[in-house]
Design brief:
- With 167 residues, the chain is an alpha+beta fold.
- The chain contains 7 helices and 5 strands, in the order αββαααβββααα.
- The chain has helices spanning 4-7, 30-40, 45-58, 81-86, 119-126, 128-138, 142-159, and strands at residues 14-15, 20-21, 91-95, 102-107, 113-118.
- The strands form 2 sheets. Strands 3-4-5 form a 3-stranded antiparallel beta sheet. It has a two-stranded antiparallel ribbon with strand order 1-2.
- α3 crosses α6 and α3 packs across α7 (142-159).
- The model has no long low-confidence stretch (mean pLDDT 83).
Length: 167
């Protein structure tokens, strides 16, 4: 009994954390929309990175791109594999569409396909500030720091609309 046309305005148009983007919903690049969403959720840059990388490792996604960004050989486990494999210099990233929205990562030596990604994933390798965070999470021992930031970001999401907690 829901009036679909009226409620269509409430339907999400993008969610970088879940690899969701409606076709032709906006001309704004996906990575800018991710930063905007992170700002609305009051995330710090390390929390934003940890949540995105952690959710990719766990395998949380939506639609056709649900496997994009799952840069780990242990999907379903909360690890720093996203960051370790993202900054691996043995991988060469190439766009697979004319809009450069989707990418494939190939082994630099053999040319074999290793990973698939979207623009949001690769911004952690190309933006200098986000790259520094990715490298911090990817180093030996960085997984513990990433998990700490993931937890603090997750708690922030869960408590964002709990006005009874904020006085």
């Amino acid at each position: 009994m829901t009036e679909v046309d009226t409620h269509a305005y409430l339907e999400p148009r993008h969610d970088a954390f879940r690899n969701y983007m409606q076709a032709q919903s906006t001309s704004i690049p996906a990575e800018h929309l991710m930063v905007d969403r992170a700002f609305m959720l009051n995330f710090s840059a390390p929390q934003m990175a940890a949540l995105l990388g952690g959710m990719r490792a766990i395998g949380i996604g939506a639609g056709d791109d649900s496997n994009a960004g799952v840069f780990t050989h242990r999907p379903g486990q909360l690890t720093n594999g996203f960051f370790v494999n993202l900054i691996d210099m043995g991988t060469v990233w190439e766009p697979v569409d004319e809009h450069e929205e989707r990418f494939v990562g190939r082994d630099r030596k053999s040319g074999e396909t290793k990973w698939t990604a979207i623009r949001v994933d690769l911004v952690y390798g190309s933006n200098s500030q986000l790259r520094a965070i990715a490298e911090e999470y990817a180093v030996n021992g960085g997984e513990r720091h990433m998990l700490h930031k993931f937890i603090s970001g997750w708690v922030k999401v869960m408590e964002n609309d709990r006005f009874d907690l904020h006085r």
